[in-house]
Amino acid sequence: MAGAIIENMSTKKLVIVGVILLLFQAFSFMVGGLIAPSPTTAVHYLATKCVDTVKTHHKGSKWFMPWGPDQCSKIRDFDEAMAKRIEANNIVFAVHIPLPNREMSAWFQFMLVILQFDIAFKMQNQIEDGSLVTMDVGLAYRDSTLSEWTEMAHSIEHRKLSCNFTATKTYENEGRYYDCDLLPFMEVGSVAHKYYLLNIRLPVNERKKVNIGIGEIKDIRLVSIHQNGGFTKVWFAMKTFLTPSVLIIMIWYWRRITQMTRPPVLLEKIIFALGISMTFINIPVEWFSVGFNWTWMLLFGDIRQGIFYAMLLSFWIIFCGEHLMDQTERNHFSVYWKQVGPIVFGSFCLFIFDMCERGVQLKNPFYSIWASDVGTDTCFLNIFFFSHVGPHLPLQVPDVGHTSMCCNDCHLLHH
């Protein structure tokens, strides 16, 4: 292999470059540790039980507010509903985001909501194995406390319950709560409005076995997770500052290569391609998401990360291959197709998986591929592939990048 330009640098220049990079890294750590707040904030909500006395859910024209001047008619618990002869189909769980006297901001970037049911144990109404909860959910928004609510999304969603009862199932333990897993509920890729309202119904239909065998649901708890506005501003500022620096270094690097009498070697080309992917992921296009309702920014961010991770793994494979001490000439990209091919295939599979979730969420923010067994098994299959097949490729390289990228789509974990 012909010597790459970075290998032909003098010791002095190499030390200068290394010190500059170290200073940049130290500066970034100082900004993150001393200036930037925590990346995200989690806010807990307890749904208010509203009563729909006129069955307006067939018309879809009324929204139920848990508090405020136009608040709904409320009940404390289902025992009160039974005493007043209120049917389960007339109960609406209402959640206003954010809490009173606060408002959301476009600097929050995204809003992820997870759900948990409080289910009491009853001997005559236990949770059946593989039971599904059917929810009639609606999302509305407004930008003023005096304006009317505008519907943003409406959907019929199904979530599989996964609950354990740690105590003995006897009459003495009735009223104790199951330990239920958190469920993915909603994700919005842009927080463009100040106020959001969730209305959740649990319709019951004994003939169609809808919401039968799900236990005695007492309450619905939600956790809303969004990016901190202060963190977003620091993050945007860092990307705006570092992107021109990386771009200048990349142009200088390629200019030095083109000035040489010999053509660029493969390692120099792959380093330049890695620089392009790094510049692409760092371009601060998120500035536009503050002024525009771009709900596809999360999907776009995943695509940029996928390109960078694929290029990084390809770089390490070629870097290791070009430095093997076997006197074999490998200065051609076609030599590495057996190693790079699985990376491209795996990245494409992860892209399809991401499109199946985030693509649908552009229209229906309540959709979650993790709510189905097929979606969960698909992602874990990708993790298994890169964890077990990857290390047995002819050239062994770390496969952490793709595994973490798949786990990033597991919203209950990476947030």
TrEMBL record:
Gene Ontology cellular component list: Golgi membrane
MF (Gene Ontology): Wnt-protein binding
Main localization of the protein described in the UniProt heading: Golgi
Subcellular localization, as worded in the UniProt entry: Golgi apparatus membrane
GO BP annotations listed: intracellular protein transport; Wnt protein secretion; Wnt signaling pathway
InterPro entries assigned to the protein according to its UniProt record, in alphabetical order: WLS-like_TM, WLS_GOLD, Wntless
Domain Wntless-like transmembrane, residue spans: 228-384
Domain Wntless GOLD: 48-227
Membrane topology annotation: Multi-pass membrane protein
Transmembrane intervals: 234-254, 266-285, 305-324, 336-353
Keywords: Developmental protein, Golgi apparatus, Membrane, Transmembrane, Transmembrane helix, Wnt signaling pathway
Domain of life: Eukaryota
Family listed: Belongs to the wntless family.
Protein name, per record: Wnt ligand secretion mediator
Originating species: Sinocyclocheilus anshuiensis
Gene from which this protein is expressed: wls
